[in-house]
Amino acid sequence: MSNMLIISATKNSNFELSIGIKNYIEDQKKFNCEVVSLEDFSLPLYTPTLEAVYKKDKSFPKNIQRSKELICTSNAMIWCGPEYNGGISPIFTNAIAWISRATEDWKEGFKDKHSLICTSSGGNGKNFIKGFKLQLGYLGSIVFERSLIQTNAKKIDKKEFSSVLDDFCENVLK
Ligand SMILES: Cc1cc2nc3c(=O)[nH]c(=O)nc-3n(C[C@H](O)[C@H](O)[C@H](O)COP(=O)(O)O)c2cc1C
Asked: Which residue in 76, 88, 137, 170 has its CB near the most CB atoms, within 10 A?
């Protein structure tokens, strides 16, 4: 079975959304699903200076290695993160920066992999989705056109939830 990694940027509403997605996909019995919250990894802020320190020691810290392995061994990814200031959650871009530096080929974790972007944001999270689609696409991912969007005011419609997830999973398995 293929590995579906569900990555939450937080431990709050985006994590709850991630768990809901995991439960739904697991019921279909077509994927091994794992949910992680990047908050639990406490990755340091990426700086070229810190990278040079790790490279001098010839090893990245365990939490960077672990996040790299999780991404690299996944066959498809579902990202759940909030919009912050009209953009991408910094916890996502920070993790991606480390993973792109800890792999031989910077696109290794993402290239040719299906990704679905989901958000639980204050508003509609459209700027996050737009920006993150561009970033994942730049890394070679096949980003699913549709997204799951939950706002403070509006939960995701049940039919929309299953339709997006069913279509995404079908695409991954094609
Ligand atoms: C620094 C910061 C900036 C934010 N900017 C936006 C924004 O631009 N658009 C939006 O819809 N919500 C924004 N929000 C609200 C979050 O998207 C919202 O609280 C979200 O539910 C947080 O996700 P969580 O529950 O997983 O922590 C912002 C929140 C914070 C802390």
From this structure: 88
Please identify, in words, the CATH class of the domain defined by 2-173.
alpha beta
Chain-centroid distance of CA 50 in Å reads: 24
Q: What are phi and psi of 14, to 5 degrees?
A: -70, -30
DSSP 165: H
Compute the distance from residue 122 Cα to the ligand 1 centre, in Å: 5
- Pull the structure tokens for residue 23: 């439960």
Residue nearest to ligand 1 atom 2, measured at CA = 84
What tens digit of pLDDT does each residue of 119-148 get?
999 999 999 999 999 999 999 999 999 999
- Residues in the chain, how many? 174
d(CA 91, CA 99): 12
Nearest Cα to Cα of residue 73 among 136, 137, 2, 9: 2
CA of 18 to the centre of ligand 1 (A): 16
Residue ID of nearest Cα to ligand 1 atom 15: 122
- The pTM of the full predicted model, rounded to 2 decimals, is 0.97
| 65 CA to centre of ligand 1 in angstroms | 28
Q: Which residues of the chain have pLDDT under 50?
A: none
Task: Indicate the domain borders of the chain.
Answer: 2-173
